[in-house]
Amino acid sequence: MTQSLPRLRLGTRGSPLALWQAHAVRDALLKAHGWPAEAVEIEVIRTTGDAITDRALSQAGGKGLFTKELEEALLERRIDLAVHSAKDMATKLPDGLHLVGYLPRADVRDALILREGASLADLKPGAKVGTASLRREAQLRRLRPDLQVSLLRGNVHTRLSKLESGAFDATLLALAGLTRLGLAERASAVLDTTDFLPAVGQGAVAIQTRFGDIAVDSLIVPVVCPATGLALRVERAYLGELDGSCRTPIGGLAEVVGDEIRFRGAVLSPDGSRYYEIVRFGPKNRALELGIASGREMRAMVPPDLLPH
Description:
Elements: E1 8-12, H1 16-33, E2 40-44, H2 48-51, H3 57-60, H4 68-75, E3 81-85, E4 97-102, E5 110-114, E6 128-131, H5 134-143, E7 148-151, H6 156-164, E8 170-174, H7 175-180, E9 189-191, E10 205-210, H8 214-220, H9 226-241, E11 250-257, E12 260-268, E13 275-283, H10 287-301
Parallel strand pairs: 1-2, 1-3, 6-7, 6-8
Antiparallel strand pairs: 3-10, 4-10, 5-8, 5-9, 11-12, 12-13
């Protein structure tokens, strides 16, 4: 970077949704600083998670599959910042890296996409639903144990095409992702968080940098959302006390209301037959403590077979 015009190298995955997120961060930086387009260069980096489409993340290595190569590029100084879906981030980051903040959070809810019908009740007994999320599968089985739930991996367009081909009767996707890709109308129903608690970080775009890189961080600070940062601090601390590796169905949502943070967390058995929930409140200046305390309380409540120790 020069004194006159910074040249930031922004790393991202290459899926359509990841590129949308990268351009959203780039556009926010250009607008905040009045820079020309050439000030931020987007570099596409293929991750291990992009290459694995035949099995669930929990079987392949967990959340880090979508971030490892981007984080390596940061540590090797090939890029200056990395942009991720916040829900893809492991709770423990590699030494030398941190999350400097998040863009304003979008809608956190899940969307149900059906080949026919307009609600979960419209699915016939035995209908085939595709998802790659243990959390979505468990919450779906809790409400509709009669359905067949099978693995469906790939980007948003890949999953929708599988639905259209008749391979599945329905799928579940994040409403935020559909909206960002201009596909919100594909949602047959938007699922209330009362029954479908979102993944930790769902709807948020995370910006990761090298720890101590003050020059880069100072340029990013004007585009991040403090309220989203507080909510994610609670959610990630909660998940960190449980299991952040995708092996357990876990949901968590923190919302900032005035000077208070409301948090709701849930843990389920994979078949949805067991469900554990907590709701807690805390002041904004104790966000980290709220998340840790919620996670420890949940761990004490949940049977040992559901959470690794």
